[in-house]
Amino acid sequence: MALVDSVRAGLAELEPIDVRDHATADLALLYAEAIDTASAGRNERGHIEGWADKQRDPLAELGPKLLACLTALGMTPAARKGIVNTAPDTPKASPLDELKRKRAERLAT
Length: 109
Hints:
Layout: H1 3-13, H2 22-40, H3 58-72, H4 77-82, H5 95-108
């Protein structure tokens, strides 16, 4: 399976993708396509055909960028561990509020 296919499968699990996240999803697909294309274009000496910068490996250049996109979309194990609850936390009652509540209960009975 190509990397771009894996990214597409992961994005399909996120459907419907929030409109605000479309650009990140598209960028992740572009990075995955570029990595697949560069990896498929290696010649017998291991050099990558069509990759403009002969001194740098496309995986080393694009891999971290793809990972950042996937993390931003919540598509990595580390990102999923960080996403526990998107609902806002309810504020804890202060000790004074607690005393007021108990007093009100006492007076009501």
